[in-house]
Input
Amino acid sequence: MKKGIHPENYREVVFKDMSNDHTFITRSTVNTKDSIELDGTNYPLVKIEISNTSHPFYTGKMKLVDTAGRVDKFNKRFGDRKQVRVQK
Output
């Protein structure tokens, strides 16, 4: 590995989902001014708006898209424009 190309401030950081107060600790180089105390240890804090505990895809609360209606609408507009090729 080349020397001098890797960040020096790689440390444990707490990410906090602001929509449901879920926190998790991981290693990161992100700069932040906030800090939080967890389990008696002070960590830098990064506030995020959405995580896997609040994202609709991962929670199963995702709205279903009406794809059938879109297909029907497309076929109504463009479905009758098929050209039949006549072979001689």
